[in-house]
């Protein structure tokens, strides 16, 4: 299965050179890391961090996303990136794993690690191999050029969650952990999420503060409870819950939030904003 770009030309440029320049500007932005990091060679069996990254158009969230990608580049890339996203389209199953083929972006193609993907499905009680959920989903696609800018030597396992509950988050976390342990491959989980949507700036800062505190505390239960209790329109709380659970399973006990801002901080319109944050689980 060849998965062609769905949002090239809207979320990020179609032209490869323009895309590379925009990625560079995301790293050099005043609210970003201020440098373009150099990819280091990673050696070891257990990849030391997982990350949380936003997935809006690069002009809005790219500078925040660059914080997490800078950490990955500075450590070196593992064999596999497992990218977990929410399902914005409504197509597909509760947990849809894209388990064979390649994903294409203007910077080239990325191979899916079929062995890892199929093992995750085998270890899960819920996940299934499904392509339909991924065809128009933007929240995994937008992560790939950031990785491709630095290297072509990695594979991916794209997973989108149509159901974001504690049960599904725990199931996919357990499946990834068991699959990774069996295959003995180095991997990093990328939780793709934006924070609250379409509040004014004051309310966005308040409710985003709730979920960011829960994430920093590595408390997936409280995160889920507060998303429900306060009706927080965080689109990828399921992937973040799964990443917290998996991180704790694999001995990663801390989360550092690296950066936060809203679309209003970019546009100057604070009446209806979307929140973006980057973080690492280590």
How would you describe the overall organization of this protein?
The chain is an alpha/beta fold. The protein has one domain (2-281): LigB-like (Protocatechuate 4,5-dioxygenase, Chain B). Helices cover 40% and strands 21% of the residues. Strands 2, 3, 4, 7, 8, 9, 10, 11 and 12 form a nine-stranded mixed beta sheet that branches. A three-stranded mixed beta sheet has the order 1-5-6. Strand 5 and strand 6 form a beta hairpin. The protein is globular and about 50 Å long.
CATH A-level architecture: 3-Layer(aba) Sandwich
**Radius of gyration from the alpha-carbon trace, in angstroms:** 17 Å
Full CATH superfamily name: LigB-like
Percentage of residues in helical conformation: 25-40%
Tell me the CATH topology: Protocatechuate 4,5-dioxygenase, Chain B
Number of domains: 1
Q: How far is the first residue's CA from the last residue's CA?
A: 34 Å
Main β-sheet description = 9 strands, mixed
Number of discrete helical segments: 10
What general form does the structure show? Answer: globular
Order of helices and strands: EHEHEEEEHEHHEHEEHHHEHE
Beta-strand proportion: 15-25%
Mean pLDDT: 97
Classify the secondary structure makeup into a structural class: alpha/beta
The CATH class assignment is Alpha Beta
Total beta strands? 12
Low-confidence stretches: none
């Amino acid at each position: 299965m060849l998965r062609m770009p769905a949002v090239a030309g809207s979320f990020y440029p179609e032209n490869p050179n323009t895309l590379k320049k925009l990625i560079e500007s995301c790293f050099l932005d005043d609210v970003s890391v201020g440098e373009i990091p150099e990819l280091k060679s990673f050696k070891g069996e257990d990849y030391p961090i997982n990350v949380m990254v936003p997935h809006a158009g690069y002009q809005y969230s790219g500078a925040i996303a660059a914080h997490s990608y800078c950490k990955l580049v500075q450590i070196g890339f593992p064999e596999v990136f497992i990218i977990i996203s929410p399902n914005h389209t409504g197509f597909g199953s509760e947990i849809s794993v894209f388990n064979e083929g390649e994903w294409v972006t203007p910077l080239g193609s990325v191979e899916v690690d079929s062995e890892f993907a199929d093992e995750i499905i085998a270890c899960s009680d819920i996940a299934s191999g499904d392509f339909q959920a991924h065809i128009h989903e933007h929240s995994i696609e937008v992560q790939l050029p950031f990785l491709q800018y630095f290297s072509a030597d990695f594979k991916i396992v794209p997973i989108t969650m149509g159901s974001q509950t504690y049960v599904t988050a725990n199931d996919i976390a357990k499946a990834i952990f068991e699959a990774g342990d069996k295959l003995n491959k180095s991997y990093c989980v990328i939780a793709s999420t934006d924070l609250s949507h379409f509040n004014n700036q004051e309310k966005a800062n308040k409710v985003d503060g709730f979920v960011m505190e829960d994430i920093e505390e590595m408390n997936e239960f409280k995160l889920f409870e507060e998303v429900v209790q306060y009706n927080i329109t965080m689109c990828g709380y399921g992937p973040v819950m799964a990443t917290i659970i998996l991180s704790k399973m694999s001995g990663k006990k801390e989360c550092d939030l690296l950066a936060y801002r809203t679309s209003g901080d970019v546009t100057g319109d604070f009446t209806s904003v979307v929140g973006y944050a980057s973080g690492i689980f280590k």
